[in-house]
Amino acid sequence: MIKIFRLKNIISIKDFEREDIEYILDEASKLEDIAQSRDISEELKGKILGLMFFEPSTRTRISFETAMKRLSGGCIGFTSSGSSSVSKGESIADTAKMFEGYSDALVIRHELEGVSKFISDIVDVPVINAGDGAGQHPTQTLLDLYTIKKEIGQIDGLKIALIGDLKFGRTVHSLSNALCLFDNVKIYLVSPPELRMPQEVLHDLDKTSIEYEEVDNIEDIIDDVNVLYVTRIQKERFADINDYLQIKGAYIINRKMLEGKDLIVMHPLPRIDEIDGDVDDTKYNKYFTQAANAVPVRMAILKTLIKNNPK
Ligand code: CP
After folding, report:
1. Are residues 122 and 182 in the same domain?
2. Cβ(94)–Cβ(100) under 8 Å?
3. What is the CATH number of the domain that holds 298?
């Protein structure tokens, strides 16, 4: 286990080595008691987190805010381009420079890939990518890994099915990259042909020893997996709504399919119809726990980056 976390910014999970991931997961488990008991620590007293959300969010924004408040810090920010002066024509660069003046770290969500990286190049405070278009969502991946480790006890040796919109789903891009850092993991990529994992991500997988297989049907793999990681079809990223309507509802997980299986069901959420409500009160449902795990994991991220990089 490393004693120092190397990264100043969290832009892509591809910047992580296994020991960086383990550092954050370890810190998160130390902070879990505070998060679970709704307590407060004074680790970031007087610090301010800037939340620049150009694209909608429930979990990511609110859990970052909760994490900062549990560490006794404060938050500023906006929840859409329309509620900032970007709507008057101010540039992203100028907006970021303003936030740099007011905050100790920035969390950015934007519909365009690369915006967080661009901002990290022009400000001195730590920058966290909270989702950039169909690119990456690295802090979601950290809480996904935390959940898998907590629920199953290990990540090495697992068989994990990534299901749904693998083309536009940034969470599955980041998670695939991260799983390459663990031993003897097999990934099943389950999607309709139109929503296959992008070639760029497959090339990343090919550069490692990870085993993966593209499949069309959940039924072909459900008896062989430890984790079903289900994702939403990303309606907002389709150029033609008819293409979305043809694919919508392609994969729906229900209680009957899961009966007798030894696996957990995860989802980064929001869900639309891809996990039936009858799964919610079964032992398979780990998606709400996964969302709650965002708080200790994001506490660990904020504590680490802000303490390591004082203004
Ligand atoms: N998982 C996730 O990123 O959810 P939000 O879009 O609600 O932040």
Report:
1. no
2. no
3. 3.40.50.1370
Residues of the chain with pLDDT under 50: none
Q: How far is the CA of 56 from the centre of ligand 1 (A)?
A: 8
pLDDT at 137: 98
Ligand 1 mutation target, pool 51, 57, 229, 271, most atoms within 8 A of CB: 57
Look up residue 233 and give its amino acid. I
Residue numbers of the domain that contains 110: 13-136+292-308
Q: Which residue puts its alpha carbon closest to atom 4 of ligand 1?
A: 59
**Which residue has tokens 């370890």?**
26
DSSP 269: S
Question: Which residue, 121, 92, 123, is CA-closest to 105?
Answer: 123
The whole-number pLDDT of residue 1 equals 56
Phi then psi dihedrals of residue 229, to 5 deg? -105, 100
For residues 114 and 76, membership in a common domain is answered with yes
The DSSP H or E segment spanning 148 is helix 138-152
Amino acid sitting at position 36? Q
Question: What pLDDT does 2 receive?
Answer: 54
> Which 3 state secondary structure label does DSSP give 77?
strand
Kindly state whether residues 35 and 123 are assigned to the same domain.
yes
Residues 302 and 278 occupy one common structural domain: no
